[in-house]
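Incident review: delayed structure delivery

Summary: a single-chain prediction request sat in the queue longer than the usual turnaround. Root cause was a stuck worker, restarted by the on-call engineer. No data loss occurred. The affected request and its eventual output are reproduced below so the record is complete for anyone auditing the incident later.

Affected input:
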Amino acid sequence: MKLQAAKALTLSVFLMLPPAVVAENPPVYRYRQANGIIAFSDRAPKNRPYQLLRFDCFACSVQSAVLWHNTPLFLQKYQQEITSAAKQHQLDPALLRAVIHAESAFDAKALSKSGAAGLMQLMPETATDLGVTNVWHQQQNIQGGAAYLSSLLKRYKGNIKLAMAAYNAGPGAVDKYQGIPPYTETQLYVERVVLLWSRYQKAI
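Output delivered after worker restart:
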């Protein structure tokens, strides 16, 4: 549960958004419980301060101008790190490569406004829970993201689309809607990751 809660921060940008904007993104509320523990929910907590989070990533933009069917692939970057992480966590290397492409476009120095960092866009808190001591270390970053992705695939019994939706919007949203949440951003993310995965499978 702690890992799932931490993931809500992994790809998030802290923004207080008007309702019209929030409607396009998975609503996730971050707040501190009475015992001091940080918690996350898809409903605004009552009688306590909270932050409204939204998710952001390379493949999530509704206005993306990228031609996903023929955008250049990253076939050689971090080959050893991806192969090792995929083997350790029983993942398809092509899928892991597709997720990295979708999250950061293979920019190891990618940094969001909220501090999500590296190839798989890990937040400092998330990195700690995943055993990542240096978020800028490419191998550690990939290992951490791979561990989380593996846990989602196990949770959803190998269903790639549900795992991808949860990677983007959080398991809570997927469970709530019993499928891919009706968020434009998440639906586009899933579609693009699956497309990239297919392309990487054919190319490597």
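Verification: The two ends are 35 Å apart (CA to CA).
Action items: add queue-age alerting; document worker restart procedure.
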